[in-house]
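Question (not urgent): is this output format expected?
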Amino acid sequence: MAYQKVNQCPSHGSGLRPELLVGRRLDEVFAAWHRSGDEEAQGPLDVWLIDGQGRSVHVTTGSDWCLIVESASPHERYDMDGWRHVEVAPIGDRTPFAAYLGEAVLAVSEEFEPKTGCITLEVTFASSRIRCDSWAGDLRLSE
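Got this back:
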């Protein structure tokens, strides 16, 4: 039987089936941040969850405030103008996912908004879960 997602983003379609994360071990997490001069970067723009086989799931937000979950690898750093750029790097301890490196994903769930599509992806590990939310067009990660 083919999988059909009833709730989907009007602009981006249904995206990746997030339940494909279940059973995968989280080996690496990369993120992208806006950087401006020497200012400390705020929350990430994107995260990439990478399993032990190198498969990557990209989580980001769309211009319509939906949450996009797709199969994609981290991109390179890029400049936005003379003094701003987007940095792409391993997360270190800069997101809640850092505490779960090496752990398997036990479950996932999504929340939808009728006009926007997916607005939340919850990734569950043995000891806790991480929420990826689209909030006013920004990606928020929380435990």
